[in-house]
Amino acid sequence: MKLIGSHTSPFARKVRIVLAEKKIEYDFVIDSPWLANSQVANVNPLGKIPVLLLDDETPLFDSRVIVEYIDNVTPNNKLFPAPNRERTEVKRWEALADGICDAAATAFLEAKRPEGQKSQEWIERQLAKLARSLEFMSEELGEKSFCMGTHISMADLAVGTALGYLAFRFPDIDWQESHPNLARLYAKLMLRPSFVDTIPHD
C-alpha cells in the first residue's frame, strides 16, 4: 500500500499512527495539494490528503474511512469495537478530534494570508471552536486513563493527533495547563513509538 500525505498534515499523521499500531508496512509518498506539481488531485478528486492507495491502486480518501479500513485489515490491536454504542462513542471522539484539526488548520492558513486579505474575525471563530472543543474533550475524559476507560482505542489516537497538531501549530494555546487531564493522556501517548516516529515538522 501507498500512503500519500505530508509531514504537517494531522490527518496523514493519524493514518500513519494507525498503520504503525497495526504493524502494517507501506510506502509513504510525500505530496500536498499546496505544491505546484502536486499529483493529489489525480488520485482524489477532492484534492485532499491523505490518500491510501491499495495494492490494486484503488484510492481511499478521508482519514476516517482509511483508518477504519486499516483496522479491519488485520485482527491485531483492534482500535474500533464491534458495532454498538461503544463504537459510536469512539467515532464521536474521532469526529471531535478531527474537528479540532480542521479548525486549527483553517486558522493557521487564514493567518498566513497577506494583510488586507485575511480575516481576523474568521480566525477568532476557529480559535473559539478550539477552546470549546478542548473544554468538552477534557470534561468527557475526566479522570479516566483513556478516552474509553482503561483501554486504548481509535479515540485516543485521534485525540492525541489533534493535541499534537495544536502543540505544533499553536504552541501559544496552553491546553496542557488549562486541561491537565488531556496533558496526562498526551504524555502517555507520546511514549508510544507510533507517536514519536510521526511528530509533525515543516
Task: Please write the string of helix (H) and strand (E) elements.
Answer: EHEHEEHHHHHHH
Which sequence of strands runs across the widest sheet?
Answer: 2-1-3-4
Total number of helices: 9
Shape by Cα distribution: globular
Instruction: Please report the total strand number as a whole number.
Output: 4
Protein model, in words:
- The structure is a single chain.
- This protein starts with a strand and ends in a 6-residue tail after the last helix.
- The protein is an alpha+beta fold and 202 residues long.
- The chain is globular, with a radius of gyration of 17 Å.
- It contains nine helices and four strands; from the N terminus they run βαβαββααααααα.
- The chain has two domains: 2-73, 3-Layer(aba) Sandwich (Glutaredoxin), CATH 3.40.30; 85-192, Up-down Bundle (Glutathione S-transferase Yfyf (Class Pi), Chain A, domain 2), CATH 1.20.1050.10.
- Strand 3 and strand 4 form a beta hairpin.
- The chain has helices spanning 10-21, 40-43, 63-73, 85-111, 120-141, 154-169, 175-178, 180-189, 193-196, and strands spanning 2-5, 27-30, 51-53, 59-61.
What's the quick description here?
With 202 residues, the protein is an alpha+beta fold.
Break the fold down into its secondary structure elements and pairings.
Blueprint: E1 2-5, H1 10-21, E2 27-30, H2 40-43, E3 51-53, E4 59-61, H3 63-73, H4 85-111, H5 120-141, H6 154-169, H7 175-178, H8 180-189, H9 193-196
Parallel strand pairs: 1-2
Antiparallel strand pairs: 1-3, 3-4
Helix pairs in contact: 1-3, 1-6, 4-5, 4-6, 6-8
